[in-house]
Request: fold
Amino acid sequence: MVYITRIEHFNAAHKLFNPTWSREKNDEVFGKCANENWHGHNFNLHVTVKGTPSEETGFVFDAKKLSIIIKEHVTDLIDHKNLNVEVEFLKGKICSIENLVTGIWNQLQPQMPENVTLHRLKLYETDKIYVEYFG
Amino acid sequence: MYNNRVSVFRKENFNAAHRLHNPTWDEATNNDVFGKCNNPNYHGHNYDLFVQVIGEVDKETGYVMDTKKLSDLIKEKVTNKFDHKNLNEDCEEFKNLNPTAENIVIVTYNLLRPFIDDKLELKLRLYETERNFVEYPV
Reply:
């Protein structure tokens, strides 16, 4: 089994806010991340797939094709966007990176070819904070 | 023979939303010039700010400038203003100024310069992304 990772990036605005709570409770729980005018990040997304290298190509999965899938189903939808307001797969969810990474998994999983398994997503919100998701 | 002038660098960061937009232009021109950076719902960045202070090494302290004091100054004058904010909506400095990386670095310089000893030179480098950064003054 060989694992291959493609790294993509996107720049987006968001806020952490639970609409069922009062403003005070949101500020208490989320602090400055609850700023009602949003803040933002450069997000880095590591997409890892696994499989057996093809005898014909030597690839587990062509990294260029993987990049195209990530762009079409993820980064084109969220790059330079406001995650709270403009992203269909986050509607009704708190825009934490935990929810973002599971949403991204659900976007990518159906696009994997038959012999390729989506293994892990790693999503960096900053260089000090990241999440991992294994499906 | 080298002199004892040394550069000291401190790195700080802030995470902010912004939008690039000229309110005197029509929407088509804004989209044409700024592209997706014109999104009216904003987007954001992790900004990395490198503050460079250049001067002689003090014989008594061994410092050009105490980096703890430099860090506190940057936090007080810059990152407390911009971190987790919307630069267009929340920051007085950008009420009438497009918050491009170029304008942010000039504003940041002007926020810090009065509080750093005159005998020290000050230069800034601001990363908007890993791939785009600006320097001032040049």
Notes: Chain B has four helices and five strands. The first strand of chain B starts at residue 5 and ends at 18. The first helix of chain B runs from residue 27 to 34. The CA atoms of residues 22 and 59 of chain B lie 50 Å apart.
